[in-house]
Design goal:
Helices cover 26% and strands 16% of the residues. By secondary structure, it is an alpha/beta fold. The protein folds into two domains: 20-357, Alkaline Phosphatase, subunit A (3-Layer(aba) Sandwich); 369-431, Arylsulfatase, C-terminal domain (2-Layer Sandwich).
Length: 454
């Protein structure tokens, strides 16, 4: 009996301590094309670190964000709610004097809930949820922050550009200099955060929001040299930027492995929207959303269906998950993983994905998913099962079966009028729980529109 007891004692000592709450990492790329990473099928842009993460993840093949452009998607992730419910449907202009252009203080945020669950919280990178001091990450639930508070930034120190893109970087409310290529600096800061909190008394959450590969198209020479075979200059620079992002993620993952935290870390990876439909000097679009239709800003699949990974080696077996999911699910899933589901607000649109991803629960996490741009009367989309309805303004609704036609090429509206009627009614019902945008997006080439102060 004694040898058996000794063996069990040794086993307990050497077994991984997965009863502890997992660390949580949210990684967001900016304007990444759907087909511009290896695990999505790209043969042109090598992304070995993201591919390795994907191999350790559940790759959600029907993964979405809640909006087809920048800030609203981030507002959705931060709250677990459709941002249309609180008027955050546009990008806030860079207006440090405005208390209206940003993520409303009435919303409870993801990091503040994780703090209540016993976590140290940190954010690195692009904020884009309001320029007024009241919207600062340190006041919205993050214990630590380093990054660019606006909607984008120049990538090299000292480069000229618009005010928002040349503001100093910010560390916990104080201006700090940019010292290197920004994607690399964000990667270094994220890696330092992981190392700093390894083995601490509290689990941690890290929100890592890259501004890459969003414009301006700027990349280090050493990365550009790897893509001399790509003739289009814009596509070549974009590819180099994606590889720099991949390297930064690789540094973070290496630190997790080195500090023996990887196994019990829940990691999400998405882009904030699809690749934009932009053209370089040759007129060639430099992002690739194949096989999807549309691009950033549109409610076709190319606008908000994105590369979408969920990884937690201690609990989730790698593979693929094919039911529709959305980044609104990150918040309730993380709280459930932290054994703090009781903190989950009752008004969320996101759901806990863990029982679905683990196979414990069958069925679909969401009966319906919704998207809208331009406020009430703007562009809408709704998905139910494999059927998706698109309505661009006052045009006739379009209907697609995504299971058979992921590229949304065959409009079935005339063949299935009852489905169209049902989904139009579903949009109308959903819109009853939304409000009009509370601020406008800045207009390109024009001074930022003033937003009413609250």
């Amino acid at each position: 009996m004694r040898p058996i007891l000794s063996f069990l004692f040794v086993l307990l000592l050497t077994a991984p301590a997965f009863a502890a709450k997992p660390n949580v990492v949210v990684i967001i790329a900016d304007d990444l094309g759907y087909n511009d990473v290896g695990f999505q099928g790209s043969k042109e842009i090598p992304t070995p670190n993201l591919d390795k993460l994907a191999a350790q993840s559940l790759r959600c093949t029907n993964g979405y964000v809640s909006h087809p452009f920048c800030s609203p998607t981030r507002a959705g992730i931060m709250t677990g709610r459709y941002q249309h419910r609180f008027g955050h449907e546009n990008n806030p202009a860079w207006l440090p004097e405005s208390t209206g252009a940003g993520l409303t203080l009435e919303e409870t945020t993801f990091p503040s809930l994780m703090q209540k669950a016993g976590y140290t919280t940190g954010a690195v990178g692009k904020w884009h949820l309001g320029a007024h001091p009241q919207f600062h990450p340190n006041k919205r639930g993050f214990d630590e922050y380093f990054g660019a508070l606006g909607g984008g930034h120049q990538y090299f120190p000292g480069d000229k550009g618009g005010v928002e893109y040349t503001i100093p970087l910010n560390r916990n409310g104080k201006d700090v200099p940019q010292t290197k290529y920004l994607t690399e600096q964000f990667g270094d800061e994220a890696t330092a955060f992981v190392g700093r909190h390894a083995g601490g008394a509290k689990p941690w959450m890290l929100y890592l929001a890259f501004n890459a590969p969003h414009t301006p198209l700027q990349a280090p020479k050493e990365w550009l040299e790897k893509f001399q075979h790509i003739e289009n200059n814009s596509r070549r620079t974009y590819a180099a930027m994606v590889c720099a992002l991949d390297a930064a993620v690789g540094g973070l993952m290496a630190k997790l492995d080195e500090t023996k935290q990887r196994e019990n870390t829940l990691i999400y990876f998405v882009s904030d929207n699809g690749g934009p439909n932009l053209t370089g000097k040759s007129g060639t679009n430099f992002t690739d959303n194949a096989p999807l239709r549309g691009a950033k800003g549109m409610v076709y699949e190319g606008g908000m269906r994105v590369p979408f990974l969920v990884s937690w080696p201690a609990k989730l077996k790698p593979g693929t998950y094919d039911q529709p999911v959305i980044a609104l699910d990150f918040l309730p899933t993380a709280l459930a993983a932290a054994e703090s589901a009781e903190l989950t607000p009752k008004n969320l649109d996101g759901v806990n994905l863990l029982p679905f991803l683990s196979g414990e629960k069958s069925g679909v996490p969401h009966e319906l998913l919704f998207w809208r741009t331009g406020g009430p009367g703007g562009n809408n989309a709704v998905r139910r099962g494999s059927m998706k309805l698109v309505r661009n303004g006052k045009t006739e609704p379009e209907l697609y079966d995504l299971a058979a036609d992921v590229g949304e090429s065959k409009n079935l509206a005339a063949e299935k009028p009852e489905v169209v009627k049902e989904l139009v009614a579903a949009i109308a019902e959903w819109e009853k729980g939304t409000i009009a945008p509370t601020f406008e997006s800045p207009k390109a080439g024009k001074p930022a529109a003033k937003t009413k102060k609250k």
